């Protein structure tokens, strides 16, 4: 297969993708990345194009049999792999059907222009093969063909240069320097004469082409050895040129067939051929295809699915690094497979791949954060209860446990973070802060024995709270009338109760509780307070008199 020639486009203008794909696989072209070049030849029919290619590259393009008369031998466009070319860059030789043939009749010029434009669109070096005695003429020197091609090339302006190499056959006595001067002058005149888009007015030929002077060959049948020497010189020049190419390939070698077919279809449909846009189109199609493939593989990755399942039941140590590593593996595979495509396209598709992958991972990440929130909140409540049971101060205990819980959550969320993502944990963190703050109030009420069902001022509570009151009673109270003493004691205790309310409200504020002021409820109405005060006063009076008091109470 390596030495076999393959018809890329047949005589009817039909592209043969199956043949080209088979050629790419058999020759190794598919694996060459951007390291490949295409060398093509075009020119008049029966000018020896196929013969020259076969001598240059040891290929087997079909040649004209002179004994059977002159006529069309190459139909359409053919490709082959040169045997004599270096391994890198990979070289593709392309033989183009000759112009000026009589077989096509009126359709001849249409196909020759299409095939010439096709050659220029996908080739790095285009050899224009012509008879030496046709230099300076209109038809034999391919002037109409060059004029059409130049006109189109100005419309499809691309920074990628093409080398035009003129090959002159059957050398005459005219000095090569003179022939070369005529070729360059004619080429420049054709370039200047074609219609120029406004944005490219006065753009020199050198912006599009590297024009190489004529390479003359003697007549093969008359001086075969000298012809072979001249072929060897041209071969070396071509090999040197391919090693120092201008720019890079339009598309990676793996997409050579796809790209060539699309270009040919656009040329056939008379569409404006935009090579930079074509390069982006090919990159877009295949980078997206590869990105979707990697996304599907990631979504079915058994390690990722196991992490997602485990995240449903609790936190996972190293969750973020594990997910990051899985994503990195697929991104690395993507990067390798799209390396030779347009950089802007492959970068954009990479971003889209990351975004879709993170969307797939995000639910498991959120589930894990909720577990971290629950664990941190339970840790706060447990630690606070333990510290209060040990008799430690409420305010210091709350502060210590809050810091510990938030630190636990922060460390867990940092461990769960995926390197490629920039996910915000502030909502769940704020929820944890609020939950901790809300939990302080019931804990504080428990600590100070305050609840909707109980009151600070109970008979038992008052007796304990104001035991010191009776110890400070002056002798004068023992001699006082009971009614005055009782009323004074009541007034003192009620006032102290109001002070207690204010003090407790201030304490709540200092402890960071969300309610201010703290209402201290009186169960069973104010009668409970009245009863409590009466009992305390009677107790104090009895102790003060040493025998109780038997006067009637009012």
Automatic annotation (TrEMBL):
PROSITE patterns: G_GB1_RHD3 (PS51715). The keyword tRNA processing does not apply. SUPFAM superfamilies: P-loop containing nucleoside triphosphate hydrolases. It holds the Pfam family Sey1_3HB. GO terms for molecular function: GTP binding; GTPase activity. InterPro entries: G_GB1_RHD3_dom, P-loop_NTPase, RHD3/Sey1, Sey1/RHD3-like_3HB. Residues 33-250 form the GB1/RHD3-type G domain. The keyword Translocase does not apply. Keywords: Coiled coil, Endoplasmic reticulum, GTP-binding, Hydrolase, Membrane, Nucleotide-binding, Transmembrane, Transmembrane helix. One of its GO terms (biological process) is endoplasmic reticulum membrane fusion. Signal peptide: none annotated. One of its GO terms (cellular component) is endoplasmic reticulum. Belongs to the TRAFAC class dynamin-like GTPase superfamily. GB1/RHD3 GTPase family. This is Root hair defective 3 GTP-binding protein.
């Amino acid at each position: 297969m390596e030495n076999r020639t393959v018809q890329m486009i047949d005589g009817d203008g039909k592209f043969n993708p199956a043949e080209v794909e088979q050629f790419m696989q058999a020759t190794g072209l598919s694996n060459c990345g951007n390291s490949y070049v295409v060398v093509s030849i075009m020119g008049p029919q029966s000018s020896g194009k196929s013969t020259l290619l076969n001598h240059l590259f040891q290929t087997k393009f079909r040649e004209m049999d002179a004994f059977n008369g002159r006529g069309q031998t190459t139909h359409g466009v053919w490709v082959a792999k040169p045997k004599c070319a270096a391994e890198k860059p990979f070289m593709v030789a392309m033989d183009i059907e000759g112009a000026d043939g009589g077989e096509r009749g009126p359709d001849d010029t249409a196909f020759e222009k299409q095939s010439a434009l096709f050659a220029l669109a996908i080739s790095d070096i285009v050899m224009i093969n012509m008879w030496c005695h046709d230099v300076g003429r209109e038809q034999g020197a391919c002037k109409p063909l060059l004029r059409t091609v130049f006109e189109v090339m100005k419309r499809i302006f691309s920074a990628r240069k093409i080398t035009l190499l003129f090959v002159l056959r059957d050398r005459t006595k005219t000095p090569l320097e003179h022939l070369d001067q005529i070729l360059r002058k004619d080429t420049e005149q054709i370039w200047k004469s074609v219609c120029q888009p406004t944005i490219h007015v006065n753009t020199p030929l050198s912006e599009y082409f590297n024009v190489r002077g004529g390479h003359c060959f003697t007549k093969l049948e008359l001086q075969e050895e000298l012809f072979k020497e001249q072929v060897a010189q041209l071969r070396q020049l071509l090999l040197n040129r391919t090693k120092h190419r201008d720019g890079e390939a339009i598309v990676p070698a793996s997409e050579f067939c796809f790209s060539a077919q699309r270009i040919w279809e656009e040329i056939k449909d008379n569409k404006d051929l935009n090579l930079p846009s074509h390069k982006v189109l090919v990159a877009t199609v295949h980078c997206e295809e590869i990105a979707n493939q990697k996304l599907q593989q990631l979504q079915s990755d058994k390690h990722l699915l196991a992490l997602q399942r485990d995240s449903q039941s609790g936190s996972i140590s190293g969750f973020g690094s594990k997910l990051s590593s899985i994503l990195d593996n697929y991104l690395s595979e993507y990067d390798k497979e799209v390396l030779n495509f347009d950089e802007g396209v492959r970068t954009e598709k990479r971003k889209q791949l990351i975004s879709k992958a993170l969307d797939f991972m995000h639910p498991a990440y959120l589930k894990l954060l909720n577990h971290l929130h629950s664990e941190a909140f339970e840790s706060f409540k447990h630690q606070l209860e333990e510290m209060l049971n040990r008799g430690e101060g409420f305010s210091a205990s709350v502060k210590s446990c809050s810091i510990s819980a938030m630190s636990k959550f922060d460390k867990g969320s940092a461990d769960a973070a995926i390197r490629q993502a920039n996910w915000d944990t502030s909502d769940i963190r704020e929820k944890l802060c609020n939950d901790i703050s809300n939990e302080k109030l019931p804990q504080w009420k428990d600590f100070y024995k305050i609840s909707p069902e109980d009151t600070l001022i109970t008979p038992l509570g008052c007796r304990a709270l104001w035991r010191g009151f009776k110890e400070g009673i002056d002798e004068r109270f023992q001699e006082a009338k009971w009614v005055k003493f009782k009323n004074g004691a009541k007034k003192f205790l009620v006032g102290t109760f109001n002070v207690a309310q204010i003090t407790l409200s201030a304490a709540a504020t200092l402890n960071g509780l969300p309610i201010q002021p703290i209402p201290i409820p009186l169960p069973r109405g104010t009668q409970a307070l009245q009863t409590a005060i009466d009992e305390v006063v009677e107790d104090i009076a009895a102790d003060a008199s040493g025998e109780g008091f038997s006067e009637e109470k009012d």
